[in-house]
Design a protein that fits this description.
Oligomer: single chain
Number of domains: 1
Distance between the termini: 43 Å
Shape: globular
Helix content: over 70%
Length: 425
Amino acid sequence: MLIILVISLLVLLLIGVPVGFSLIGSSLIAILVQDTIPLQAIPQRLALGLDSFPMLAIPLFILAGTVMEAGGITKRLIHLSEVLVGHIRGSLAHVSVVSNVFMSGVSGSGVADAAATGSALIPTMVKRGYGKGFAAAILGASATVGPIIPPSIPMIIYGSLAGVSIGKLFIGGAIPGLMMSTSLMIVSYFIAKKRGFEKRQRARFSEIIAAFKEAFWALLMPVIIVGGIFSGLFTATESAVIAVIYSLIIGLFVYKDLKIKELPKKILETVTMSSSIGIIIAASAPFAWVLAYAQGPAKVLAMFQNIASSTIVAMLLLMLILLVLGCFLDGMAIIIITTPVIMPILGQFGIDPLHFGVILAINVMIGTITPPVGTIMYVALSIAKCSVVEFTKEIWPFLLVLIGLLVIFALVPEIVLYLPNLLMK
């Protein structure tokens, strides 16, 4: 049954069936072959897959992000980034990184961040001679940081499935996210210096103060979200509700860039994006149930016990598997499919589920900028109007740095666990 389940999933994915329907189809095929499980198990499990209070945070954070983008948040954060780092060689490359750090506190979605900042920055980068491939690569690499610095949709999904505190996962991603951003800026600087990219004039102190004042309300949102979660005032799901209300107030009454007539369009965008994620989440429930029925997790655990000689080897093997999966599967699907299988392995080898949750999120985000199925990659390509080959030539230095940092985070758990242990004992 297990072999039929896995093979049917791979075949359906290879022939181009969407991930959600591939998960449902493979579950159905395995049940029909087994002929002992009633077919009504599939709709029952589909309903149970979405019956989760923490999952409500996903559409709410997406809505908050779309509303804040329409409310003028993005342009103010980009302007602030430009006055802060525009004087460094390769100005717009650094602006791309810093803008995505700021945007990460808004939506929790790397794809949304890439679309929002990319539409403003990539055309300008191309006009200033950065090249389409490089513009798409640095934007894509920068957007991977979005779901690592809180809030984070991948961490919400993992935390819900693994029973790990979503608030602690959010806090645990802060230091790794900032390290990733800093490293991307360092790589960008050396590339810019080698290629002779532009260097803008340093902004005056008065300009910096003015930019901070203009972006103050945008910068306050992640402070409210993260501060409220780790202080215990509200849960991650409740913080998403607050984020929506806050974004509406700022967009309509403070910045006044958001118009009432635009709200139906933004709600429709949220529904479209949330439904694509929701289908995968719902479809993964019967798949995971059939996988457990076929004793998939136990068999994978037995395989790891035979191969892995230590915790470090087990962690490195898990990362390698996840990186390979990231080249072919959507990140949400990877988290949902692998979490039930991986949890027994974490317990067997003494790996902290909180630590691994952040590592998993970074893994799947790296997968979003790797061919052939990188979601952020395709967003950047569509804006830059360049080919996968051009993108691949430019992305590899950033990819190597991100993978190197991933190994460091995996081998030094304290980088992830320090802030959660300090702030949320």
